[in-house]
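User:
Care to share a sequence and structure tokens?

Assistant:
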Amino acid sequence: MSASSKPEPLLEVKGASKTFRSRRGMGAAHAVIDASLEARPGQFVAIVGESGSGKSTLARMILGLTPVTTGSIELGGVDLTAMNRAQRWEYRRAVQAVLQDPAGSLNPRKTVRRALEEIVRLHHVAAGSSARAGAVSEALELVGLSPPDAFLDRFPHELSGGQRQRVLIARAVVLNPRIIVADEAVSALDASVKAGILRVMMSLKERLDVGYLFITHDLPVVKKVADYVYVMKLGRVVEHGSKEQIFADPSHPYTRTLLAASPIL
């Protein structure tokens, strides 16, 4: 798709910063500094950098879990901090999360059926028990948990790590989001399971036109799946560009260092 025909950015981060101050006023930690980025439907955007670069803090800011100190995060041109209750509710549906630890993100006391149907009911995705059950089954099918009946009544401890991650993706997809923020979503999985999860994510991108903000330190994965890449160092975005540009002709010394240290698949 040419630059002129790109859809307008759905999610925009504009000069966002996050400063954590100590309770005793002994100093401040600048976790994210003047970060700007865009995410569009159907686009796979990666945010890369070492541990401590500010990637996960930025993800939490985008998800509305950590307030922005300065700058803004906008959905459809509306600042997250200025949204009314209805707009904020829509934001939660439109921008979903898939996190690193599927075991910790799923309630161990709830079956897959209950965990997903609660989300459907709370967000009024479908009316009536039959429609809710259908929406849940469809989401499980989309992420490769088929037949759904084989998984609906299982608890998290009865699933493998890859299956739990697919349930998390299904939990996000059932709300028909426009952007999924995936923070180290495949880093804890072995190679074969990781490949399967990435195939699911790419399939959802093509079938549902969902976009991704994919936070990772795994550059070989980024090279395989990303469309656009942002590089963070010490809280700042130091470089960004298309995947081809970043991997073939990086301009920042830090990006070149990351690529030099990255394993080759």
